[in-house]
Amino acid sequence: MKSFSQEKGLILDETTRRKFDYYFYEAVNAKTLGKYDEAFDLLQHCHSIDSTNASVLVELGAYYSSLEEKNTALDYFRKAVKYDPKNYYYNMILAGLSKELDLKEEVIEIYNYLLKTYPDKVELYFELANVYGDNGELDKAIQSLDTLQKYTGVSDAITLNKFRLYNMMDKKERAFEEIQSVIDKNPDNIRYKLLMGDLYLQDNQSEKALTYYDQAKLIDPDDPSLILSMVNYYEKTNNRTAATEELQKAITSSKMEVDTKLQLLARYIAVLRQGRQDIKTANPLFESMFEQHPNNSQINMMYGDVLLLQEDKKGAMEQFEIYAKDNPTDPAGYEQMLRIALPDTNALDKVVEITETGIKNIPTAPQFYFYLGLAKFQQKKYKEALSIYEKGLANAEFQSPMIESDFYGQIGDINHFLKNNTVAFENYEKALKLNPQNLPVLNNYSYYLSLERKNLDKAEQMSGITIKAEPTNPTYLDTYGWILFEQGAYTMAKIYIEKAIEYGKDDPSAEVLEHYGDVLAVTGDTEKAVEQWKKAKELGSDSKTLNKKIRRKEYIKE
């Protein structure tokens, strides 16, 4: 970018100007309505009428940038600035893209030009200092910050940036002198003494850090930031007892904001866990917090988490219920309750209660439809479960196609259970269109196809994806083995079903054992086949042909 001098644009006659304005405003309207292709076409038409209009050039540059055609976008932005050099907005857009493309010298040139034109734009000094720093021109970066400090006075941001730059220059003492000069000018400001202490602590100079913390105590021994700094100091010097005492003191203080206390409580619990101390030590502090802040349900949420760590599920549930009641449109409360209820097979009614309340208050949250449908299915209310998943698809807002895919997968599974295989397979197809790697859907779809003995090549292909993704999953291995069996590849089927038995030995499946018996029978090992069928029967198999297989000692197709 060699020059910021303005080049003259085209001078349009009145008729052409009106025509240009019409198409430009149409482009803006189309963009506002989300009709981006139409807006792009209109902007190109505007550009054909007046190729020097900076507004059009910037808009086209933005389009090319969104299409990842960065160099084309850069060309348009440069032209926009050429025809309207004093436009702050256009220059900042050009600087932003130039920075993205690592054109540091161009960025520096733009910021310096803008500072001459807009000396009151203090953010430019920071931007210029940062780009000088990135370009290795650290002295110039510091000069930019010095100039800024003349305009704005001392600030934490400027001081810290200068501290960072001096450290980059390996001028550590000069870095600390920068902070000290601010302290000297503001001797009664506790914030700068704490800042100096914290920086010394980060630099592993604990003794010097403590000197500044002691100075801060003389100003205000109960300052919340001082307490946080002392906690850090004690943790850094491995004095956990003192850190704990400091935390307890802070949490019971009436001067500290509740959000800061919650942060400290989280730190306190972390200290207890690191030291393998009893987490119940924290419980009285929560009681103190409830007394001081009886209407702050964030305390209930955190206390619930702590009670879960103590395996007090009942107490945790009570805390999460309070939180959910006070924050009915926040999914976090319901989700924490589900964490407790879902693993408990006797808590299906509770799962239903939680998810129905969640749907009532947050009708767009897909997770509550999902778990409600699951609970209804486990309660053997299959049509209700199906209806819930369908309502979820109609009402929920899916942040990911993978979650939506799971809904279609569940609808497919329920329809198969209800013997509506045609509908089931249609929903599996929808699920896989959204997420081609949905392993449970791939497994179930391929297995049910094999049971119907149709589309076995497609079934083998889908099942093959699952065993590549999870080669030790016994369910997926059994499905693949069974498809091979139906294809007549008995030797390979035996290998995969044996793997399924090996990886599933801790939780043997009647279905897998029956399949193993079937493959043994057709490969001539009748006695061992009968043995496997009997094991399947002992595990409660509901196979219609199992008893006949055992009695006749032969494989019988269902």
Strand elements, count = 0
Q: Describe the biggest sheet?
A: none
Question: What is the count of helical runs?
Answer: 31
Mean pLDDT: 87
Helix % is over 70%
Rg estimate, integer Å: 35 Å
Distance between the termini: 79 Å
Q: Which residue ranges are poorly predicted, with pLDDT under 50 across at least 5 consecutive positions?
A: none
Shape category: extended
Task: Tell me the β content.
Answer: under 5%
Oligomeric form: single chain
Helix-strand category: mainly alpha
Question: What keyword list fits this structure?
Answer:
558 residues, 75% helix, mainly alpha
Compact summary:
The protein is mainly α. The chain has helices at about 15-30, 35-50, 55-65, 70-85, 90-100, 105-115, 125-135, 140-150, 155-170, 170-185, 190-200, 205-220, 225-235, 240-250, 260-275, 285-290, 295-310, 315-325, 330-340, 350-360, 365-380, 380-395, 400-415, 420-435, 440-450, 455-470, 475-485, 490-505, 510-520, 525-540, 545-550. The model has no long low-confidence stretch (mean pLDDT about 85).
